[in-house]
Amino acid sequence: MTVATVGVHIVDVLARPVESIPGGQDTHLLEQIRITAAGAAAGTAVDLAKIGVPVASFGAVGDDELGDFLLMIMERRGVDVGGVVRKPGEQTAASILPIRPDGGRPSFHVPGANLGLSPADLDQDRIAAAKVVHLGGMDVTWGLHDPAFYALLDKIRGDGAIVTMDLLSNMPDLMPAVRSFLPHVDYLLPNEEQALMLTGAATAEEAAAALVAEGLRGALVTLGGAGSLVVTADGATTVPALDVPVVDTTGCGDAYCAGFVAGLLEGRDVLGAARLGTAVAARVAGGLGSDAGLDGPVHAD
């Protein structure tokens, strides 16, 4: 294991293209339906495994058929799922995603077992052995908003590992609690809306600069089709998105995180790692689901 992903695990059911929800008992014929492992921890773990990075995932799923499926598909993709606990009586988190023709993705979501994940569920020794720990969805894993977990992150960083963090939702009420993680993280990778809500800033650049001023080594704000904004103590740089046909934007943020982490492990600087994240996200945008298109090496140059 080189990377540990910690946090949200979701089963996604995706269908495309969906222009409207049928009325009554009507049926619309579609081109494609997929079921995938997703979520800010599980989706990133699958992407890392598919681009060749050894990864173990840590989180919670229900003791149900969806949980069986999620663990099976993650293992099939090459993820070590020994750190994913089963929660009796709880449902595995799941989303239904009708993908619009332009790649947009409204969703129907059940948060399920993610809400009950706590430090007691985590194999802390195994997590501490990773070179990079990626926190996925700390806004909705409320049980990890715990001083004991912050202490684990501080120990990990003190031992020389890197901690990265991504969020899951764009819900304003959840953002204040996320700020408690900032002193314990090296790199934060929010989308633009999340960055603005976290800081109250008027622009993405102001938001990223404010986040870095709180002690982060870097803030990488994803901007959709405009690429990403990379801000460190050395300044701000925009990394443009690649010009590719977009089928589905589901999981592009997770893919960006996976590429960024892989780039750091390769010894790239922050901008180089961001460019690899951009390339991985572009692959995923070209297919349906959070792991689409990742069937071989991804190059940023």
UniProtKB/TrEMBL annotation:
Q: Which PANTHER family does the UniProt entry name for this protein?
A: RIBOKINASE, SUGAR KINASE
> What is this protein's name?
Sugar kinase
Residues forming the Carbohydrate kinase PfkB domain are 9-290
Recorded hits in InterPro entries, A to Z, give: PfkB_dom, Ribo/fructo_kinase, Ribokinase-like
Keywords of the record: Kinase, Transferase
Its domain of life? Bacteria
- Which Pfam family, any one, appears in the UniProt record? PfkB
Keyword Lyase appears in the UniProt entry: no
Q: Which GO terms describe its molecular function?
A: kinase activity
Q: Has keyword Oxidoreductase?
A: no
Q: Which organism is it from?
A: Microbispora corallina
